[in-house]
Amino acid sequence: MKRLQAYKYELRPNGQQRRDMRRFAGSCRFVFNKALAWQKQRYAADSTAKFSYTALANMLPLWKREPTTQWLKAAPSQSLQQALKDLERAYQNFFAKRADFPRFKKKGHSDSFRYPQGCKLDQENSRIFLPKLGWVRYRNSREVLGTVKNVTVSQSCGKWFVSIQTEREVEQPLPQATTAIGIDMGITRFATFSDGSYLEPLASFKQHEAALRKAQQAMSRKTKFSNNWKKAKARVQRIHSRIGNARRDYLHKCSTTISQNHAMVCIEDLQVRNMSKSAAGTTAAQGRNVRAKSGLNKSILDQGWFEFRRQLDYKLAWSGGYLIAVPPQYTSQTCPCCDYISKDNRQTQSRFACVECGFEDNADVVGAINVLRVGHARFACEVSGAVMPPAAGTHRSDSGAAQCLH
Ligand SMILES: [Zn+2]
To answer: Where in the sequence numbering do the catalytic residues fall?
Structure first.
């Protein structure tokens, strides 16, 4: 099977390269925003106007010739085209209801640009050739395996990074483990397993929250754009990046352990995007319990459920296992002993007690057991060749290409 893997390193650019990278990222952001504005205008004039990458790509040379935007010529053309590709992807995600409507990019928010080709990797000398930048040194922490597909350069907290996407052929692995497990994701426990064990929440955000608030307050007291304000802002960004690193690290450890110990993992198919939306409510119907719900959402997003699921998915594919996502209906209300479904079974948030047969257990463990049972049933269906309804949410990584994007 084909294995896609990304490797990320810190770059060690010289002064000129640093300035150029800032300019290239700025040019890509400019192109993205200009294209988005153009598309919005076109749509306002004619609501049948579809997004067209080709139309936009054809406008790029015109923008480069315009006296006011001539500076676009300095940036690698392929990276500018990739910015348009990103916009195309953003539109596709919006229409597939995976994401909100594309937004304008702001300076300093995920500054990056991508090369689809033309990069040369010299691992022996810890350097990479990037078009229009030349050879750039990087902190070589591990060996890159496979052929280089594309390269993304990005900035975070004043440091520049390179992410190298590779592809290689690996043998279809056979799972070492043979067991199956169900997972119930939660707030008080990050994950509860059908065997009764559980993982504590990371709460990296809570740990750093006080420090972050203090840094944000300090920043708000400074005169905007002054030197002290810039220093305070850098501090806020550093704390944000520390939170992100701690969370990523924790999620990777958890997902690695699970994927090594089990051949089949069943998980609830939660729509985190919908959940975070419902908190705000629409203007017509203000969401109830907005405060409580936004608190819940903050926890969900803080814990990175989506990221956890994405990691489980590709890691299981790498080890020859399966991830099965099941619809979450009734998993918290069904009795695993007698199948009786009732809201009354769930007396409190943490306790499950069947009103029919008297079975009692921790509510999260019951949820995980039910997730596993539904997953088993769905997996059996799939193997026997029965046609699954597409909306059922059963998900198997059998595309052959397992992905890892750090
Ligand atoms: Zn029962």
So the answer is: 184, 268, 364
